[in-house]
Amino acid sequence: MLFAMLFPGQGVQHINMLSSFLKKEKIFQNTFEEASEYIGCNLLKLTQEGPLKKINNSKYAQPIILSSSIAIYKFWKKYNGKNPSFMSGHSLGEYSALVCSNALKFSDALKIVTFRGQYMQQITFNRLCSVKAIIGLNKNIIQKICQKYLYKTVSIASINSNNQIIISGDQKDVHEASLDCKKNGAQYIFDINLNIPVHSNLMKPVAKKIEYILKNIKIKTPQIPVINNVNVKCEKNSKNIKKALIKQIYTTVRWKEIIDFIQSKKVFTMLEIGPNNTLTNLNKNNINLTSLHTSNQKFFLQALKIINKKQ
User: Fold this and answer.
1) Going by C-beta distance under 8 Å and a sequence separation of 6 or more, which residues neighbour residue 49?
2) What CATH fold (topology level) applies to the domain 4-123+201-308?
3) Which residues are bridge partners to 253 per DSSP?
4) Is the pLDDT of residue 111 over 70?
5) What positions does UniProt annotate as the active site of this protein (predicted)?
């Protein structure tokens, strides 16, 4: 069966995540031990006990989500799970995809995402920020609303599906923009579990710092094609992969286009490798797709059986 692997970004973290895997599986403990040693914090204990405020801090959330996806992928390979035709990660998830495609070492990815999370959190030290999902409003209308803010304090952070677009930026301006969206016909608006202005112009200083870190990181050609967030391409060249990772920090995640690209390659099964089913839920209205996830051991084994069965 042809399928694509999808890796989630920040916002899927929660207390007691991965608990169904942890009782018997050393792969998860070993992966988190490696990450914890690098971060200087017991990340596995943090995921199970909290506090939630610390889990939600980007400095910890980003390595936690990366480690979760890497551990699930290792578990997939342990059970002889098939290789996908494509990989793609939503924002932070792009690092998970690059590790699992053998383009980037896990230790290097940990280094990048820890600093990435730390620098992103620093943006909020003297600034209240907000991230909201706009449901049921045309992208062009939302774009015009964002353009009203002269200092570019509100941006389209992600186009997740035909029906869901994420905006982020200064808390006050995002609130005003969301009210404007409601007046213009948005069906529903809800808060995203983030307090940093992801994929907005406010993140440009972070991009500069990540560019500096990436200079000393080796990235190889992915063994499985990885579709990036910035231009919806499968880059093979280290320089181009790095450029995309830098640019994605302050530009829109083109998730809907990534899913469309995968479908254009006659791949209609999506497997989410992460501790939640956020990306799976985005596909639920697409009747052409079979969407599976690995958020606990039960769903993992179901997905393994479906994908590994002979056609």
Assistant:
1) 15
2) Malonyl-Coenzyme A Acyl Carrier Protein; domain 2 (3.40.366)
3) 158
4) yes
5) 91, 199
Alpha helices in 136-271 (DSSP H): 139-146, 171-183, 204-214, 238-247, 255-264
Residue pair 279/8 in contact by the 8 Å Cβ criterion: yes
Asked whether the beta carbons of 178 and 189 are under 8 A apart, the reply is yes
- Where would I find the beta strands (DSSP E) of 90-159? 129-135, 154-159
Orientation angle between helical segments 171-183 and 139-146, nearest 10 degrees: 140
What is the pLDDT confidence band of residue 74, given thresholds at 50, 70 and 90? Answer: very high
pLDDT per residue as tens digits for the range 8-46: 999 999 999 999 998 778 999 999 999 999 889 999 999
Can you give the pTM of this predicted structure?
0.96
Domain ranges of the chain: 4-123+201-308, 129-191
Note the pLDDT of residue 309. Answer: 85
**Residues 6 or more apart whose Cβ sits within 8 Å of residue 194:** 10, 11, 131, 168
Residue where the block lists tokens 């600093």: 115
Nearest Cα to Cα of residue 305 among 37, 11, 114, 80: 80
How do residues 142-155 score in pLDDT, each as one tens digit?
A: 999 999 997 889 99
Q: Are 97 and 113 in contact (CB under 8 A)?
A: no
- DSSP output for 69-100: HHHHHHHHHHTTPPPPSEEEESTTHHHHHHHH
| Nearest 10 degrees: Cα torsion 206, 212, 216, 220 | 60
In single-letter form, the type of residue at position 48 comes to: Q
**Inter-residue contact 39 to 109 (CB < 8 Å):** no
CATH code for the domain defined by 129-191: 3.30.70.250
CA gap 284, 221 in Å, rounded: 32
Q: What is the pLDDT of residue 311?
A: 46
Instruction: Beginning with the edge strand found earlier in the chain, give each strand of the sheet holding 154-159 in spatial order.
Output: 154-159, 164-170, 129-135, 188-191
Residues catalogued as catalytic = 91, 199
